[in-house]
Amino acid sequence: MAIQSIERAAAILRALAGGPRRLGVSELSERLGLAKGTVHGLLRALQEEGFVEQDAESGKYQLGASLLQLGNIYLDVNELRGRALAWSDNLAIRTGEAVRVGTPHGDGVLVIHHVFRPDNTLQILEVGAHLPMHATALGKVLLAHRPDDVEALDGLSRLTKSTIVSRPALERALETVRQNGWAAEREEAVIGEASVAAPIFDRRGEATGAIGVVGAVERIFTGRTPRPELVAHVRDAGRAISRDLGGARY
User: Fold this and answer.
1) Which residue from 160, 154, 131, 133 is spatially nearest to 144, judged by alpha carbons?
2) How does pLDDT run across 184-218, given as a tens digit for each residue?
3) Is residue 186 a contact partner of residue 217, using CB atoms and an 8 Å limit?
4) What is the C-alpha end-to-end distance of the chain, expressed in Å?
5) Has this prediction a pTM greater than 0.85?
6) How far apart are CA 129 and CA 191, in angstroms?
7) If we measure between CA atoms, which residue out of 91, 87, 163, 74 comes closest to residue 127?
8) How far from 204 is each of 37, 233, 243, CA to CA, in Å?
9) Who contacts 166 (Cβ-Cβ below 8 Å, separation ≥6)?
10) Which of 30, 105, 131, 162 fits as disulfide partner to 110, beta carbons 3.0 to 4.6 Å?
């Protein structure tokens, strides 16, 4: 029974994270298929721990500040992120582009570190963003070295007209990634945006994460191929972080 309560509480947190800014008891009850009394009881328990907060005006609930604290603790103890900090800053400086470091999480890629493009343009911090595996360079370079994750993908959603939605086509793309040692995508996730990424291997030889640059297509690509110097810089960063994690040279 206790485990069921944990599962239901987690479902409430996921619903609040994935829905509008705030949700009421009735809305959560309908979304999750739970009785209103059950939802209300779980919300009160979560509220006491600071995991959710109730808006005094509307009576609806939103995620609480304690989750932010837990997220920050996770990032602080994450070895991959710690090893990647300096190399990510260096990569942003060398390429002039924004840098993302990601790790597999569920059916996507969790961005655990993000360095802004080194200019004065307005940018949004992407730490905590959950990116699609099949439509990003970070995701594809991870899938190429994690075959079990490919099997676990539940469909390939189309995000743009360039998104790969055929599993055989994705398999062919991943074979190319394995041969090249890096991945690229051009407007597969966001129109006008492209990215390049390389794998990060840990001491066990597993692809524990990926690092890459992301930016406007015209800055990342020359014609139909990514700029060679960007690919070289990204691969160098991936190798350096892998070395710091105790991974074998590649």
Assistant:
1) 133
2) 999 999 999 999 999 999 888 889 999 999 999 99
3) yes
4) 48
5) no
6) 18
7) 74
8) 47, 24, 12
9) 156
10) 105
* Cα–Cα distance, 80 to 101 (Å, whole number): 9
What residues contact residue 120 under an 8 Å CB cut-off, 6+ apart? none
Q: Which DSSP state fits 240?
A: H
- Strands (DSSP E) along the chain, which ranges? 52-54, 61-63, 98-105, 108-115, 130-132, 183-186, 193-201, 207-216, 221-222, 225-226
Q: Which two tokens stand for residue 232?
A: 């070289």
- Token readout for 56 is 């005094």
CA–CA distance, 102 with 72 (Å, rounded to integer): 15
Rounded to an integer, what distance in angstroms lies between the CA atom of residue 146 and that of residue 204?
A: 13
Structure tokens at 154: 């539940």
Q: Are 221 and 78 spatial neighbours (Cβ–Cβ below 8 Å)?
A: no
